[in-house]
Amino acid sequence: MGRHRSDPMGMARLALIGLGVVLLVALVLAGARALVGTLSAAAPTPRPSATPEESATATAKVPTLSIVCTAEACPPVLVRVPGGDVLNDRDLSGGERISFFDAELDVAVEDAGTVEITVNGTPRPAGKAGQRETFSVTRSAPGPGG
User: Fold this and answer.
1) Among 62, 65, 96, 132, which has the highest number of CB atoms less than 10 A from its own CB?
2) Where do the record's region annotations for Disordered lie (predicted)?
């Protein structure tokens, strides 16, 4: 019988395995941290669309449409430009407000009892809980000095 020799790659192999395990753990931790950060971040509020003229004075103007979620969570609210871009089509969280300054908008609210809607600065009558509402809004002409 021959004499048993130790493998010359034994220590190097262990070092490579250890390095691989450390890298794997680091990747898992980085991924978990990124996932937690993404899930805990608030959903981005849709950017109201405005023409260049409106964008300069948007803070002083009243939005064409403003919707506030008054429940803990509100079912999907769809806001779109007629025949064009969808500006919002998602659930809203409690207290979240979305506002739009477009000239014309089509709106669909899955549960009208969970939101407060303001059109051109005027509150819209409250809807019934569980009732779906669809309507269109048009930007009112600016008054004197506006």
Assistant:
1) 65
2) 122-146
Phi and psi at residue 50, to the nearest 5°: -150, 150
Can you give the three-state secondary structure of 62-80, one letter per residue? CCCEEEEECCCEEEEEEEE
Extract the tokens encoding 30: 């980085």
Q: How far is CA 27 from CA 23, 24, 33, in A?
A: 6, 5, 10
Question: Which H or E run includes 89?
Answer: strand 86-93
Summary mean pLDDT of the chain: 82
What is the C-alpha to C-alpha distance for residues 89 and 100, in angstroms, rounded to an integer? 13
- Say what the pLDDT of residue 34 is: 82
3-state DSSP assignment of residue 52: helix
Q: Which amino acid is residue 82, in one-letter code?
A: P
Strands 73-80 and 86-93: antiparallel
